[in-house]
Amino acid sequence: MKVPFLNPAPRVNVVRLQGAIGIAGRGGTGGLNDAGMAPVLERAFRRGRPVAVALAINSPGGSPVQSSLIAARIRRLSQRHQVPVHAFVEDVAASGGYWLASAADQIWADECSIIGSIGVVSGGFGLQDFIARHGIERRIHTAGRSKAQLDMFRPEKPEDVARLQRLLDQMHAIFIEQVQRRRGARLKGDDDLFTGEFWLAAPALEMGLIDGIGHLVPRMRDLFGDQVRFQTYGAPRPFLRRFGISAADLADETLGALNERAAFQRFGAW
């Protein structure tokens, strides 16, 4: 005879990784960053002795540093608590979003999920002609010859662009190393794998970027039985915003929402 409290149903703790990465506190709408996700991940790996942690990922990317910090934290916690990690891609796991997914032991996706974009991008505007047409004079004084490099109100200098390109190439190499280390022999040789291109789930599976096509609940039940229980963890809202929001905060939130929406729309989502 089974005694219920001596034979508890297996538990899977679910962590939602939703939104652009590294924008909270900078025009963000609850975006992902290591400081905000640290207590969430700690609880998910510790509470209830889970048989697995499932990451529900929906992110177009963002800060490479925050992507690296969150992914490294996931790996440390998985190893410390001996809990396997499964990532489930929803609309998008691209760029930094895929970096997060690569922290999992296995990656699953919907057939229509967007996966990949293993690259680094830097963008801005050149407004020097605009201010000249309007009779605006740019005045800037620096100590250090490169302090004002790539200023949007001044013409680009070839040496500044070359310096930026070296920086982007170095970041790209670190991203590639992360994917190769985590995916290993599952990756199939393909010239397009690290060009920043992105794919639907089926070709991503062929290239070894994911391990299968499937959804969180049925896949976890396949692995751990029909009696498996789920507990979801997510980043809490800031305390003061539970009671109200200032006009400045509202403007900040609106700008952040537009930026995040634009990031998702690049991959055909939202």
Written overview of the protein:
By secondary structure, the chain is of the alpha/beta class. The protein contains eight helices and eight strands, in the order βαβαβαββααβαβαβα. It has helices at 34-46, 64-81, 96-101, 128-133, 158-183, 201-206, 216-224, 247-265; strands at 11-18, 52-59, 85-94, 106-109, 114-116, 198-199, 212-213, 229-233. Strands 1, 2, 3, 4, 5, 6, 7 and 8 form an eight-stranded mixed beta sheet that branches. It is elongated.
Distance between the termini: 51 Å
Low-confidence stretches: 239-243, 246-251
User: Mean of residue pLDDT?
Assistant: 84
Shape summary = elongated
How large a portion of the residues is in β-strands, by DSSP E?
15-25%
What share of the residues lie within helices? Answer: 25-40%
Number of strands: 8
Q: Assign the structural class, choosing from mainly alpha, mainly beta, alpha/beta, alpha+beta, or little secondary structure.
A: alpha/beta
Task: Characterize the main sheet.
Answer: 8 strands, mixed
Helix count from the secondary structure assignment: 8
H-E order: EHEHEHEEHHEHEHEH
**Radius of gyration over all CA atoms, rounded:** 22 Å
Brief write-up:
With 270 residues, the protein is of the alpha/beta class. Helix content is 38%, strand content 16%. The termini are far apart.
Top keywords for this entry?
8 strands; alpha/beta; 270 residues; elongated
Task: Lay out the secondary structure.
Blueprint: E1 11-18, H1 34-46, E2 52-59, H2 64-81, E3 85-94, H3 96-101, E4 106-109, E5 114-116, H4 128-133, H5 158-183, E6 198-199, H6 201-206, E7 212-213, H7 216-224, E8 229-233, H8 247-265
Parallel strand pairs: 1-2, 1-8, 2-3, 3-4, 3-5, 4-7
Antiparallel strand pairs: 5-6
Helix pairs in contact: 1-2
